[in-house]
Amino acid sequence: MTSGQPLSSANRNSMSSLADEIVAKRGQKRILLMTHQILGYPDFETNYEMIRLFAECGVDLVELQLPFSEPIADGPVFLKANQEALNRGTTVEQCLDFARRVTEEFPLSFIFMTYYNILYQYGVERFVETARSIGIRGLIVPDAYPEESPEYLTACKKHGVEPILLATPYTPEERLQYLSNETGGLLYCVARKGVTGAKTEFDQATTDFLSRCRRHAATPIGVGFGIQHSEDVEYLAGKSDVAIIGSQLLKLLEAEGLAGVRKFLLELKAVTEGR
Amino acid sequence: MSTNGYYGNYGGTYIPEILYPAFQELNREFEKIKNDSAFWSEYCDILANFSGRPTPLTYADRLTEHFGRAKIYIKREDLNHSGAHKLNNALGQGLLAKRMNKTRVIAETGAGQHGVATAIVAAKLGLKATIYMGREDVERQYANVFWMKRFGAEVVPVEYGTRTLKDAINEALRDWVSSFETTHYLLGTASGAHPFPAIVAFFQSIIGIEAKEQILRLEGRLPKSVYACVGGGSNALGVFQAFLPDTEVELVGVEAGGKGPDSGKHAARIAYGTGKAGVAQGYKTLFLQDEDGQMRDTYSIAAGLDYTGVSPILADLSEQGRVRFEAATDDEVTQALELVMRKEGMIPALESTHAFAGAFKDMGGTSKSDIILINMSGRGDKDIFNIAEGLKDDEWTAFIERKQKQYEQSR
C-alpha cells in the first residue's frame, strides 16, 4: 500500500482542521511522522536545531513537551530530560516564547505535550487560549483523564485547539468509542503498556489493536511508544496515519549528535515516501 | 466518605489511560469488600493474631504530671507488628490483592515503615514484593532497607527528582503501568488517585475505632483534642475518622515544620499556608509547588513526613474547619522526643514525635479536667542514627567509629 485514502472510514462532517490536514497529507505519503522535543533539554538552541532538522527531513507534526517535575507517564530517558530542563531553570513562559518563534518559522504542525498541573497553575482556559494564539494545533496531556477534565475539553473546543486523547490495547470497546468521540485531530494509540522509551514489538496484536482503533475513530490515528527503527514505521504504514517517534530521537541525539538524528530521519522519510 | 472520589475540591482520578483497567478492577473489588463484614472479620482476626491488635491506649501519667494540665493518653500504634500503623493498611491491601489474584505487590516508602510493612505482609501472604524508595531516604533509613531485603523484598533506590517519597510514588506508578495485570500497587498513604485515599482510610480506621472505645471505657468521655502527625495522612485519618461525628472533639494534624516557616525547608503544606491546589501523582490536593506548578523540594528530619502533597480527605477537612493544622519544627521535635523517652519510657518515631510536639505546644491552653489523645503512629528504633545525630550523642558516634574499625580489620 502506498499513498491513499485515510484509514478511518467514519463520517468526516465534524472533522477538525488538524485532522483535515493529516488526511490531505496522507494523500501524498504512506504514513506521516510526528516527532518530539522536551523544551529546554539539552537547551533551547538544540531544540531549535532539532526542529530545523525535522522541517528539512519531511517531518509533519512536532510535539513540544513542557517539562514537569512529576512526569509519571515518561520512562527514564524523558524523565531525566524533564528533570534536567527544570534544573537549568526552564519556565513555562520560556517554553511559550520558544513555541511562538518556531511556529512562525517552520511549516510544521506543532502540538504541546505536558502534564495537567502545568495547565492548572497557568489557568486551564488561559493556557489553551495562549496555545491557540501561538499557533499550537493540539494538546496531549496524559493525566488529564477525560472524565475528570471537562474544563480542559471545553476550553479546547471553545478555542479550537485539539485535545488529543490516548487509547491503549487494554482499552475496552465501549471506552474506545468514548475516547474516539472526545479526541480531536487524531487518536493517539499507545502501542503497549508501560512508559515511554522501551522497545515495542510490533506484531499481529498491534495490527489488531490498530484496526480496532480505526473502526472507532472519526479522526486519523497515530501510533506511539517504542518506535525505534525504520522497520517499525514500515510495519505501521498502511495501519496508522501517523507514526510518533519520541525517546529514540533523544537517545540518538545523545549518542550520535545531530548528524545521527538526520540520518535516522532520512531513513524514515524514505519509508514514508515508499522508496 | 465519598461517592465519586472527590472530597470537596480535592481528590479525583488523574491517571494515564493505560491504568484504566487497573482502577476499574480496584474500584470494583474495594466496593465489594467495603460492605462485606466477613472480609472485615478476617482482617481483624489476622491483625489480632499476627499483629497484636488492639494496640493499647496508654495513660501517660508522668507526662501529665510534668505539664500539670490535661490528662494525656497515647494510642500505641508502635506496638503493631512492624512497629507502625502501616501494617494495618498493608495487610488489608494484601488481602485485597489476593482477592484480585495478583501475585506481586509494589509499594513506595519514605521512612521505610510502609516498605517494611509491605515486605512483611508479602512474606506472610506469599506475594512477591518490590519497594521503591528515594535514594536520600535509603540513606536516612538504612535499617529499614536491611529488614525489607531480609523479608525477601526487592528494594529499588529511586535516583530521580528529589529522591524522596514523591519520586518513589512516581516510580511505583511507572512500574504499575507495565505490570498491573499481575501486580497490585499497595499505596501506603491516604493520597493518590481515587480509590486509594478511601482504601487506605478504610483500613486505617481501625485505629480510631479502637481508641474511641478505649477512651470511653477508661474515662467515660471523649477527649478534648486528638493529635496526629501528617505526612500523606494515613495515621491521622486512621485515628480521626471515628471522632469526625463528635464535633466537640478537636482534631489536630501536625505537619513537618522542618527548619521553620521562613526557611523554605519544611513540608508544612497547610499549617504554613503555602500549599496550593494542583494536580499531580494522580490526584488533586494542596501541593508545595512553584508558580509554574513544579513541585518544590520538601524537607523534614522525618523522612515519612517529607512529602509535597497531602491526603485530599485532609485537605478538605482542613477547608471545612474540621481539622486544625499545626507544624512542629525539627528542634521542637527533638526536644519532645527527649521528654517522652525520659518521662514515659517510649521511643516515638521522629514522624510520630511531631504529634507529641504539636500537643505539647497546646498544653498551656488546657486544664486538668481535659483529656488529650496523641496517636503514636510508630516506634523510633529505626531512627537511631538520626536521633543520635540530632541529640549530638558523642558516645554513640564513638561506638560507630569503633565498629567501623572492627569491620575494616576483619576485611
Quick structural gist:
The complex is a heterodimer of chains A (275) and B (411). Chain A has 275 residues and is an alpha/beta fold.
Description:
Chain A is of the alpha/beta class and 275 residues long. Chain A has a nine-stranded parallel beta sheet. Chain A has one domain: TIM Barrel, CATH 3.20.20. In chain A, 49% of the residues lie in helices and 13% in strands. Chain A is globular, with a radius of gyration of 17 Å. The two termini of chain A are 12 Å apart. In chain A, α5 crosses α6, α6 runs parallel beside α7 (150-159) and α10 crosses α11. Chain A has helices at residues 17-26, 44-56, 76-87, 92-105, 116-122, 124-134, 150-159, 173-182, 204-216, 230-236, 247-273; strands at 32-38, 61-65, 109-113, 138-140, 162-163, 166-167, 187-190, 221-224, 242-244. Chain B is α/β, with parallel strands linked by helices and 411 residues long. Chain B folds into two domains: 6-48 and 85-197, Rossmann fold (3-Layer(aba) Sandwich); 54-83 and 205-390, Rossmann fold. Chain B is built from 15 helices and 14 strands. Chain B has a six-stranded mixed beta sheet, with helices on both faces. A four-stranded parallel beta sheet of chain B has the order 7-6-5-8, sandwiched between helices. In chain B, β9 (225-229), α10 (234-240) and β10 (250-258) form a beta-alpha-beta unit. In chain B, α9 (196-219) packs across α10 (234-240) and α12 (330-344) packs across α13 (350-362). The longest helix of chain B has 24 residues, at 196-219. Chain B is globular.
